[in-house]
Amino acid sequence: MKYEIKHILKELRNEAGLTQKQVAKMLNKSETGYASWEQGLSEPNITDLRKICQIYDISADYLLGL
Fold first, then answer.
1. In the 8-state DSSP scheme, what is residue 11?
2. Cβ neighbours around 13 below 10 Å, total
3. 40 to each of 43, 45, 57, how far by Cα in Å?
4. Cα separations (Å) of 1 from 6, 17, 42, 44, 61?
């Protein structure tokens, strides 16, 4: 499904021209931890969701595919 958070995270990152390592650093996460979100192995918690919305200047609704 296109609107899964893993797809949205990857799309936002690519549009911003950032690497997984750069985004992980902004979120104070390991690169492996961030990569697991984009792979759909885990999902960010509410604190991380807020930070992601701030980084990309998007709403939580958009990030969650609503």
1. H
2. 19
3. 7, 13, 22
4. 10, 23, 16, 18, 16
Please report the sign of the dihedral spanned by the C-alpha atoms of residue 2, residue 8, residue 14, residue 20.
negative
Find how far residue 55's CA is from the centre of its chain. Answer: 9
Q: Tens digit of pLDDT for each residue in 2-54?
A: 679 999 999 999 999 999 999 999 999 999 999 999 999 999 999 999 999 99
Quote the DSSP letter at residue 3.
T
Hey, what are 21's tokens?
A: 């390592």
pTM reported for the whole predicted model:
0.89
- Please give the pLDDT value at position 1: 53
